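Instructor's aside before we start: the two examples that follow are unrelated to each other. I chose them only because their records fit on one page, so don't look for a connection. First example below.
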Amino acid sequence: MSRTITVEGMSCGGCESTVEDALEGVAGVESASADRERDAADVEGDADADALVAAVEDAGYDASA
């Protein structure tokens, strides 16, 4: 399953890496790719949307599914 979540506050490649690492730490995520220019992250896997948002927010960014 593929899902895109909105992520606000990314301003550099390091931010993208932080968001990707946070998402990949969620159970059920197979891969994650963040894009600061789109203010979004694409996630592959069957993780719960609320868990994805919580992981990104815990990493210091605003997110919504």
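Example two begins here.
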Amino acid sequence: MDQKRLKQILSSSADIEVQYNGASVWIDKLNEDGRTATVHLRGPLEERTVVDISELDEK
């Protein structure tokens, strides 16, 4: 995923499915470096992980 699309998803009110390593995640924010994002799994667990935005896949 590129930075422009990630910003569009973050500003959208739509429920856009994004996956990281095959797991559905919520994007919390684009980090200041512009190359990583903080995400957490959809569901009851809210453990946050920093991932490279190139590894995020819109479904």
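The helical segments are 3-11.
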